[in-house]
């Protein structure tokens, strides 16, 4: 009979045994060692039926299919563009996925995206060898022009977005900024200089205080006070 | 830095046009600066400088060596900078890179030409033995403006330096202090003025520093004498701009010098 050794939301460290026996299944951040399930990362336990998953407290971005990410074009190759998406592996935009336009065979690819350009793209495929394919075809996916970028811990991104995007919509409305949040921890903002600074500070505050409850009200208060000050 | 994105830079210039910086400061405003002396127990002198999120520590180590043959009556100092990989995503391990060497050289020039230390007073025996001061600068965190922070830390470390005890056989007992302080003759400080577009400003954070067109580091003494200059960046500077930058730097150096309370002899040793 299997035995569960941890509770919901408990903090565990790598190497910690989470469960014994074959009744439980190892999820993200865990692995099976003989008849034990062992933690692979520092994180919070998330139990869902028989599945044991760990939510990381910190760490690099792990690419997942359908994630919206912001990346920097680092190289142009014959079949497309290589993009750095703040992750351990480079990503690729192929010619086919780059634009809706037709790209002629001998076109100058730097006219579409040049090295150093930032793009917001969607991950279409992650292979087991961690080859990442990006697509630029879809609503909102574009080259980023103007504005500024900030980088936060990728594990805090869900908190910045909030439930049903409540948090990010609050910031957008109050500060009158365009904001795009990549799942990889890069956030692009564009707007009136003063509102923009307020939005940046609000996002950094969320990153710092992501563990607290009642954060949305806190942030609302923070922005209102900031708006009064300027 | 070459990977700066052009359109992001234009956005920064737009912000500067409306007189707003990325952290709400004015263009010629420094972040909060903190100077702490004597932070490293095992160094003869040390200083930690904090400018906003930028942290730099400098320490001095003293040794007795034979003077250089062409200057038998003088001791010397040497500045070395290490930019730790932990302090910035841009820094790597290994031999010092261009940035580290530039910081060492510019700080060295400022202190040497500003005559912060009288080398003749470091002499122990002519042609045979003199003190040599090793100034080591280490970056703990880089959030822009390392040059100014490094120079302040180096000067602070000199101000804090105390000679160790010398044994009868000429060896140094580093564990015992002699109680004799190193005399700092003047207070040369480096202030770097940065340029983006047509804007001149001080003390950039990392987000601004990556877009700079040009910078001019100006080392000045208490009376406004310029003791060191270093220009960086690709863009050229006009004569008027250089005049303006030197004025800004001289004024700011006066403010920063107040942080070193009671340090130095106040320019008396000059000439």
Structure characterization notes:
The complex is a heterodimer of chains A (230) and B (271). Chain A is α+β, with helices and mostly antiparallel strands and 230 residues long. Chain A has 3 domains: 3-56, Beta Barrel (OB fold (Dihydrolipoamide Acetyltransferase, E2P)); 68-144, Nucleic acid-binding proteins (OB fold (Dihydrolipoamide Acetyltransferase, E2P)), CATH 2.40.50; 148-229, Ribosomal Protein S8, Chain: A, domain 1 (2-Layer Sandwich), CATH 3.30.1370. Chain A is built from 5 helices and 17 strands. Chain A is flat and about 65 Å long. The mean pLDDT of chain A is 90. Chain B has 271 residues and is α+β, with helices and mostly antiparallel strands. Chain B has a single domain, classed as Ribosomal Protein S5, domain 2. Chain B has helices at residues 6-17, 98-113, 146-159, 206-209, 239-257; strands at residues 33-37, 45-51, 54-65, 76-83, 123-125, 129-141, 162-166, 172-181, 189-196, 199-202, 214-220, 226-233. In chain B, strands 1, 2, 3, 4, 5 and 6 form a 6-stranded mixed sheet that branches. In chain B, strand 9 and strand 10 (199-202) form a beta hairpin. In chain B, helix 2 (98-113) crosses helix 3. The radius of gyration of chain B is 19 Å and the shape is elongated. The A-B interface holds A 72, 116-118, 144-150, 190, 193-194, 196-197, 200 and B 3-8, 10-12, 14-15, 18, 20, 22-24, 207.
Structure in a nutshell:
The complex is a heterodimer of chains A (230) and B (271). With 230 residues, chain A is α+β, with helices and mostly antiparallel strands.
Quickly list its features:
A: alpha+beta, OB fold (Dihydrolipoamide Acetyltransferase, E2P), Ribosomal Protein S8, Chain: A, domain 1, 3 domains, five-stranded mixed barrel, four-stranded antiparallel β-sheet, B: alpha+beta, 12 strands
